[in-house]
């Protein structure tokens, strides 16, 4: 009898195992079948967020002018810079994103907690000055972009309309809707890809120059390389990326910051950090790749059309669009013009927002786009003042080129200092726990710091 029981048990086990296997297999098949290409694309799009908008905001009208100038002046020679700056930019922004997710605080708040407040107050003030000059120049560039399509619309009218529209959206739109608006607006950068594809490029030469470094080592070219480093690895992106990760955590959390002490907030963020890191990396690296891809195509379009026809004196994005029209056609001209406006709508709120995050976190004010105006007057007040001063620049006749020079000098002073603090914080085990930098990431971070110090010194020295 006992032997029969053993036999029955022996027979039951493989049958049960088989049933589980069939059930598991059917589930796997169901998952595989359900992963339709469109579904995969939808899941990938849902993964993208702060990294995509941060990367896209890097290609603002002043950045477009720098890339256009590079292609017009040196053809395809400096095309390799897009591939070179991509990993540097992505690694820095990933550090910033990890700091935000793990600590539950923005970059300025972390610096205030762990390092010198005097340094913090100095760099946030310089950030405010740099971003304000950049906002003013970008508002003017957007107005010029619309005038390229319809010259009859008054410049000052356009500047005011753009400033008011951006300000009202940033202050009175809920963070969930505003984040979605910025995410979809980033797709406007595809206009530059289309304009390049319409420029009859020599793709053999493009492929040859894409990854093989080439330099002339003259003063003008060194300045342009430093300008590209300055506009791709830019301080306002550091503050925005970190704070946006915190905003995203708050958006998807049942608890708000006001319901917990600072220690409890940090515990909540540390709990969610591990599962969010993979998503973070996909988001950040995708956003930075997209940003540098656009940079690549802008340089290529201007090299293939302008440089090839002896048009080398380009100082603004609008000039590049006008010069492209007779060479690449009206469609390329249209895409280039629309791109100027779209990137301004994306980049200006990021600049104003990063300044507000920096100041609010530095002085311990309530902050966050998820808050209503009456809950964070100081935070939104910084955004308002920065936008107002940028707007006034266009009325008092400050040359936009000079404004960008002043902005570059401020960024040249700020970027290396902030980068040092980013590498130190993201590599600190006490602050970052398991998510601290891998040693390779730390070394690349220090290489980036060294490059930005050289670029900052060279940029500042050029103007004095």
List keywords for this structure.
single chain; 464 residues; mainly alpha; Hydantoin permease
Write the layout of secondary structure elements.
Blueprint: H1 2-34, H2 37-47, H3 50-58, H4 61-74, H5 81-103, H6 107-114, H7 117-149, H8 155-172, H9 175-185, H10 190-197, H11 203-211, H12 219-232, H13 235-252, H14 262-305, H15 317-328, H16 330-363, H17 377-395, H18 400-426, H19 429-432, H20 439-462
Helix pairs in contact: 3-13, 3-14, 3-16, 4-12, 4-14, 5-13, 5-14, 5-18, 6-16, 7-8, 7-15, 7-16, 7-17, 7-18, 8-16, 8-17, 10-14, 10-16, 12-20, 13-16, 15-16, 16-17, 18-20
What report would you give on this structure?
It contains 20 helices and no strands. With 464 residues, it is an all-alpha fold. It has one domain: Hydantoin permease. About 8% of the residues have low confidence.
């Amino acid at each position: 009898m006992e032997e029969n029981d053993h036999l029955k048990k022996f027979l039951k086990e493989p049958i049960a195992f088989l049933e589980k296997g069939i059930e598991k297999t059917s589930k796997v098949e169901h998952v595989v079948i359900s992963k339709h290409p469109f579904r995969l694309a939808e899941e990938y799009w849902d993964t993208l967020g702060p990294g995509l908008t941060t990367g896209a905001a890097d290609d603002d009208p002043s950045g477009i002018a720098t890339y256009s100038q590079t292609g017009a002046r040196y053809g395809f020679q400096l095309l390799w810079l897009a591939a070179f700056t991509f990993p540097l930019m992505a690694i820095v922004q990933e550090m910033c994103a990890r700091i935000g997710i793990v600590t539950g605080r923005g970059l300025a708040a972390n610096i205030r907690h762990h390092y010198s407040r005097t340094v913090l107050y100095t760099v946030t003030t310089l950030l405010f000055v740099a971003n304000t000059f950049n906002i003013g120049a970008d508002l003017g560039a957007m107005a010029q972009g619309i005038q390229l399509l319809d010259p009859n619309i008054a410049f000052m009218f356009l500047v005011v309309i753009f400033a008011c529209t951006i300000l009202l959206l940033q202050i009175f739109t809920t963070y969930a809707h505003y984040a979605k608006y910025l995410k979809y607006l980033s797709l406007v950068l595809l206009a530059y890809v289309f304009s390049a594809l319409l420029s009859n490029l020599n793709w053999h030469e493009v492929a040859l120059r894409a990854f093989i470094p080439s330099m002339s080592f003259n003063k003008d070219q060194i300045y342009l390389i430093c300008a590209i480093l300055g506009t791709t690895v830019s301080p306002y992106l550091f503050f925005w990326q970190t704070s946006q990760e915190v905003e995203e955590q708050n958006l998807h959390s049942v608890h708000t910051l006001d319901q917990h002490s600072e220690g409890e907030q940090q515990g909540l963020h540390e709990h969610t950090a591990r599962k969010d890191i993979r998503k973070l990396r996909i988001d950040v690296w995708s956003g930075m790749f997209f940003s540098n891809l656009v940079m690549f195509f802008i340089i290529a379009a201007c090299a293939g059309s302008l440089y090839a026809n002896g048009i080398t004196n380009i100082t603004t994005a609008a000039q590049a669009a006008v010069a492209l029209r007779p060479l690449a056609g009206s469609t390329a001209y249209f895409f280039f013009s629309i791109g100027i406006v779209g990137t301004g709508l994306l980049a200006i709120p990021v600049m104003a927002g990063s300044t507000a995050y920096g100041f609010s976190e530095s002085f311990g004010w309530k902050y966050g786009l998820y808050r209503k105006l009456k809950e964070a007057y100081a935070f939104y007040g910084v955004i308002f003042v920065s936008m107002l001063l940028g707007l006034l620049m266009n009325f008092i006749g400050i040359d936009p080129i000079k404004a960008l020079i002043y902005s570059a000098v401020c960024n040249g002073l700020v970027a290396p200092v902030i980068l040092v603090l980013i590498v130190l914080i993201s590599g600190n085990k006490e602050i970052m726990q398991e998510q601290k930098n891998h040693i390779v990431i730390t070394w690349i971070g220090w290489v980036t710091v060294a490059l930005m110090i050289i670029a900052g010194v060279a940029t500042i020295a050029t103007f004095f």
